[in-house]
Specification:
single chain; 84 residues; alpha+beta; Hypothetical Cytosolic Protein, Chain: A; three-stranded antiparallel sheet; 3 strands
Length: 84
Amino acid sequence: MACRRVKAKRELVRLVRTRGGNIEIDVAGKKEGRGAYICPELECWERALKGKQLEHTLRSNLTQDNREQLIRSGKDLLKELASG
């Protein structure tokens, strides 16, 4: 989404807007809700969460708390993906 590179879904991280309106990381890629895919690279992750691009794609608004939580969770996930 952020860098517009074409990759297989298995190579990307899915974020999903749940029915409750929260935006969460969907590691398994099976959660119900509107989804967006981001490269598992810190630069792409930060770019997607910095502006309004993710909010537009998911048709939702991110609170500052939700945005910060996604950044922290994303960094942890990217570390895991890089090491494993």
